[in-house]
Specification:
Chain A: It is a multi-pass membrane protein. The complex is a heterodimer of chains A (about 600) and B (about 220). With about 600 residues, chain A is mainly alpha-helical. Chain A contains 27 helices and 2 strands. In chain A, about 70% of the residues lie in helices and about 0% in strands. Chain A has a two-stranded antiparallel ribbon with strand order 1-2. In chain A, strand 1 and strand 2 form a beta hairpin. Chain A is elongated. With about 220 residues, chain B is α+β, with helices and mostly antiparallel strands. In chain B, helix 3 runs antiparallel to helix 5. In chain B, the strands form 2 sheets. Chain B has a 4-stranded antiparallel beta sheet. A two-stranded antiparallel ribbon of chain B has the order 5-6. Classes of the chains: A mainly alpha (about 600), B alpha+beta (about 220). The interface between A and B is large, with 57 and 52 residues.
């Protein structure tokens, strides 16, 4: 069998773009603006940037260093660092697998919305009519057209996680397409991925720029941007702000999945990863801030639109009830008229008082949404009110797709690279076949997310599949590098690669600050889990037309337990296995080298 | 005597008409026009002529509905006009001016000719509001093939073609690489078999083939 050298990126730019493409994902667009809004607008930048410096950049650099040094995927790399810690790599692979399963479903939804944008009238801009054409479909009346399109026509969601049904064929087709495209991107490994990231990393910025220009020129956009940038510094006293900043940095950079180790394992030995780590982390945070300006201008537009609609409705109600001339009431004097009419015609006013709403722009701006609700409901509603809505819709969902696909590349590489390092597998299957098998496996399991209860399983995976285990994994990682492997040895490795030792900043962060931060985050998460009581999810109630908080049934809670335990337990189990096998076999001691057998993968 | 009787009738006629048309009458409808909302700067002023047009269009609608029974503008009675531009109207039958056309007939007449009535005033179903007659919603556009499926088909086709092309080219590359006998020492694509002292590094490592530098003692190699 001919010995192939490890494939590598064509140039360092491909590596940087791959990291950017992986790190800059949907979280930058839909989680960061929400956190900004919740935690005091412009003031949130302070904890965010502090956490970036204290934990983001050091941990990112550490993972790149490990991958570049060991030139192996996560399992091989950690086994090489310590034979007892091959489980860290395995935990990463398991977590990446969970992520791959559910993350591509988001891409499937983006495809679904993208394809539905090619219509004269966007399907989520109006309710469908019922069979005898007298009124709109009831569920749509109670909710809104965008919510109806998302929950009924896209997801066909069931009322609870227990009730399910058949696969949604359209969704399944979109998921199939998403996986085929992922396969196309990774089929030749680094060679094909390296070319693709030129596009997936840069095009979203172009779209964001176009959207920025469109966004700030919308009517009312500046209300939203002003609202965002007005710092509410009292939020800094809230510990939740700092915790959220830390977790956002942590998850946004994609640490702990093994993707960064996989990417940097294809680097040349002397690649300057330190500078690249700083660059990519800063680009990631900068993108978050950039995306939140866009999001807030769209929020402002939507809030102003709703506020003005509310005023119109009130005006119509008043002039219809009291037969006043149309031009007598307008935005500025409507509150005057309300109080006036209440005094002069109290009985008539009493009849309509239940329908009188208090229109408030601040209230509209205060409604903060994150996650899929922001991307697929709030944003698509805002788009329907823009002129040339189809164009903006296509552009927006295409950008979501690129962001999602870029992150998927990293996730799939995190699984494939360790598998390829496992020699028996690499010998029996060619590159293309192995990649195809992984994609097919994830596709088949992912079909489960296209059933009516699929969205609830999706939320479960999203909330529990990766969060807790990642914290644990990265905590073990930084602890291992700093104390078990030894900071001195690590310094020497870095010097070997870069030609200079890491400065005091890196050493302090790796040895002290980042582990402490991670431990406190970890403890906080555990306390939160315990205090939170029974885990709950939000189920769609079609009669009320909104989400209601529901408790998970027993099998749901059991599955959450399985998700959490399955990835985390790899670490102790692998350590135990290595311990047992080591003592059973004779360890060949070679003079002058402390070799260790790699634990079985 | 006859003059007195005629004067009485003439005096009573508007009174009778007034009784026929009043707010909340059973066989009448309230109409609301929102001209300024619909037309903005191009809005016209509501005047007697516009009201005349309304009565004429309504007479046209009722005439059309009742299969060309001769309805005249005078059969449409209007009352309770307000600043809002809203008023009540009733329709009297041509044979007997004190009898009103039933509500249902009027409603159907308006429904069937709604578009014509709206166009006469440059308004829409929402801005020319007949209170109690809900507009029939537009029928949804039916497609033979849903457009999303077409776009999906195109994208899927392109992607599959791309994959097939890549796989075929890989397969051909491998076939071409197998043909000339490979010289193990002379590697054209520089797979980088590192040799030190004539011994290939791979032979030093164990059967897994990776030399784990993580556990190397520095003393093996000369220190710089």
């Amino acid at each position: 069998m001919e010995k192939e050298s490890r494939p590598s990126w064509d140039n360092p730019m491909q590596f940087i773009l791959a990291c950017v493409s992986y790190a800059v994902g949907l979280g930058n667009v839909w989680r960061f603006p929400y956190l900004c809004q919740m935690h005091g607008g412009g003031g949130f930048m302070i904890p965010y940037l502090v956490m970036l410096v204290l934990e983001g950049i050091p941990l990112f650099c550490m993972e790149l260093a490990i991958g570049q040094k060991m030139r192996l995927g996560s399992i091989g790399a950690w086994s090489a660092i310590s034979p007892y810690l091959g489980g860290v790599g395995m935990a990463s692979v398991v977590t990446s697998l969970y992520l791959c399963l559910y993350y591509n479903v988001i891409n499937a939804w983006s495809f679904w919305y993208l394809f539905h944008s090619f219509q004269a009238v966007l399907p989520w801009s109006q309710c469908p009519v019922n069979t005898n054409r007298t009124a709109f479909v009831e569920e749509c009346e109670v909710a809104s057209p965008t919510q109806y399109f998302f929950f009924r026509q896209t997801l066909n969601i069931s009322p609870s996680i227990q009730q399910s049904g058949g696969v949604h064929v359209g969704q399944a087709l979109c998921l199939l397409l998403a996986w085929i495209i992922v396969y196309l991107f990774i089929v030749r490994g680094v060679k094909s991925t390296g070319k693709v990231v030129y596009f997936t990393a840069t095009f979203p910025y172009l779209v964001l720029l176009v959207y920025l220009i469109r966004g700030v020129t919308l009517h009312g956009a500046l209300n939203g941007v002003k609202y965002m940038f007005t710092p509410k510094l009292e939020q800094l006293a809230n510990p939740q702000t700092w915790i959220n900043a830390a977790t956002q940095i942590f998850f946004s950079l994609g640490l702990g999945f093994g993707s960064l180790i996989a990417f940097s394992s294809y680097n040349h030995h002397n690649n300057d990863f330190e500078k690249q780590a700083i660059a990519v982390s800063l680009i990631n945070s900068g993108t978050s801030i950039f995306a939140s300006v866009v999001t807030f201008s769209i929020y402002g537009f939507k809030a102003t639109y709703n506020y003005e609609n509310c005023l119109e409705r009130m005006k119509l109600l008043l002039i219809n009830t009291f037969d006043l001339a149309e031009e007598s009431i307008h935005k500025q004097n409507i509150s005057f008229w309300i109080s006036e009419l209440n005094q002069t015609h109290p009985d008539q006013f009493g009849l309509i008082s239940s329908r009188v709403e208090h229109c408030s722009l601040e209230q509209e701006l205060d409604t903060a949404v994150e996650g899929t609700g922001l991307a697929f409901i709030v944003y698509s509603e805002a788009i329907t009110n823009m002129p040339a809505a189809q164009l903006w819709s296509v552009l927006y969902f295409f950008m979501l797709l690129l962001l999602g696909m870029g992150s998927m590349l990293g996730n799939v590489m995190a699984i494939i690279t360790p598998l390829r390092d496992f020699k028996p597998l690499a010998r029996s299957f060619s590159n293309e076949t192995l990649n195809g098998l992984v994609c097919a496996f994830c596709l088949l399991l992912g079909i489960g997310f296209t059933t009516p209860a699929g969205n609830y399983w999706f939320t479960m995976f999203n909330e529990y599949g990766a969060t807790f285990s990642l914290l644990f994994i990265v905590l073990i990682e930084v602890f291992t590098v700093s104390y078990i492997y030894g900071l001195k040895r690590f310094e020497k490795d870095v010097e070997d690669m870069l030609g200079r030792r890491p400065g005091w900043y890196w050493k302090v962060m790796w040895a002290a600050v980042s582990p402490l931060l991670l431990i406190s985050l970890f403890i906080f998460y555990i306390i939160n889990y315990i205090q939170g009581g029974v885990p709950t999810y939000q189920a769609w109630d079609k009669e009320k037309g909104r989400l209601v908080v529901t408790e998970y049934p027993v099998f749901g809670q059991a599955f959450i337990g399985v998700l959490l335990v399955s990835s985390v337990s790899c670490i102790p189990l692998a350590a135990l296995y290595a311990f047992c096998t080591r003592h059973q076999r004779e360890v060949p001691v070679r003079k002058g080298s402390a070799r260790s057998r790699t634990s079985s993968v | 005597m006859r003059c007195v009787w005629m004067v009485c009738v003439l005096c009573l006629a508007p009174a009778v008409a007034a009784i026929l048309c009043k707010p909340d009458v059973t066989d009448g409808y309230k109409v609301r026009l929102s001209i300024k909302t619909a037309l903005g700067d191009d809005a016209y002023e509501w005047s007697k002529s516009e009201l005349f047009l309304f009565r004429a269009v309504l007479a046209f609608a009722v005439q059309r509905k009742t299969n060309n029974v001769n309805y005249d503008v005078s059969n449409i009675l209007v009352c309770d006009e307000t600043e809002r531009v809203s008023f009540w109207f009733v329709v009297t039958t041509p044979d007997n001016t004190s009898e009103l056309l039933p509500k249902l007939v009027v409603e159907n007449a308006i429904r069937e000719n709604r578009h014509r009535i709206n166009s006469a005033f440059l308004l829409t179903d929402q801005t020319l509001d007949f209170v109690g007659i809900n507009p029939t919603l537009a029928a949804p556009i039916e497609y033979d093939t849903p457009p999303w499926l077409i776009v999906f088909g195109v994208v899927m086709g392109v992607v599959c073609a791309g994959i097939v092309a890549l796989l075929v080219s890989t397969f051909l590359q491998k076939k071409r690489a197998k043909k000339p006998s490979a010289d193990p020492v002379d590697d054209e694509d520089g797979s980088g078999s590192i040799a030190g002292n004539g011994i290939l590094c791979e032979s030093i490592g164990d059967k897994d083939g990776t030399y784990n530098q993580g556990f190397t003692d520095d003393d093996r190699f000369t220190k710089l």
